Automatic annotation (TrEMBL):
Region annotation Disordered: where it falls in the sequence: 149-181
Composition bias, Polar residues: 161-173
Key word Cell membrane present: no
Name listed for the protein in its UniProt record: Rhodanese-related sulfurtransferase
InterPro entries: Rhodanese-like_dom, Rhodanese-like_dom_sf
Length: 181
């Protein structure tokens, strides 16, 4: 049904090709392979808040950390027991600058990665597609992966994702790549 709606909107000119498309996922291994084989033609960005990276870990395979959403420590959601997160108003400009630094443009491959892949990885990739970038993907299950549903480690993020797929990572963030506004 969604496909039919998108096709109708596209045929009437109400959405562009980039708007009609959703970002596709790539596995951690596919991402690492692309970075190693064609790194100068790919922009790989970690879209997590830098404080999150400090506590969870980092991979130097990324070009940069450019947060898609930033934690607002002045607004706390009592019901969910979490701080609010707002879209980084400079996100698109910072991605454009990172592309330019590598001699790339908005048609170049961009891969985003967040903690789980779904909360900011895919949304950040879709956000870029909606703003004129044409080749954006996200890392499936993100950096930390999914939570276990059963067993003594239930709730811990020990399934899939970058960390649990044997990809290179460290507990220390690279100071040259971490976001500092």
């Amino acid at each position: 049904m969604k496909s039919l709606l998108v096709m109708l909107l596209f045929s009437f000119g109400l959405v562009t090709t980039a708007q009609a498309e959703e970002a596709l996922s790539v596995t951690p291994q596919e991402t690492l392979d692309m970075v190693q084989q064609q790194g100068d033609q790919v922009l790989f960005i970690d879209v997590r808040d830098p404080v999150e990276i400090m506590f969870i870990g980092f991979t130097d395979a990324v070009d940069l950390n450019i947060p898609f959403q930033m934690v607002d420590r002045t607004r706390f959601n009592e019901d969910k027991a979490v701080f609010a997160m707002d879209i980084n108003e400079n996100f698109v400009a910072e991605v454009d600058a990172a592309l330019a630094e590598k001699g790339l443009d908005r048609d170049s491959l961009i891969i985003t990665m967040c903690r789980s892949g779904s909360a900011r990885g895919k949304p950040s990739a879709d956000y870029l597609l909606e703003r004129g970038f044409t080749n954006v993907k996200y890392v499936d299950h993100g950096f930390q992966g999914d939570s276990l549903k059963e067993g003594p480690q239930k709730g811990m993020r020990l399934k899939n994702g970058w960390q649990n797929s044997g990809m290179p990572w460290t507990t220390k963030a690279n100071p040259e790549k971490i976001y500092r506004p």
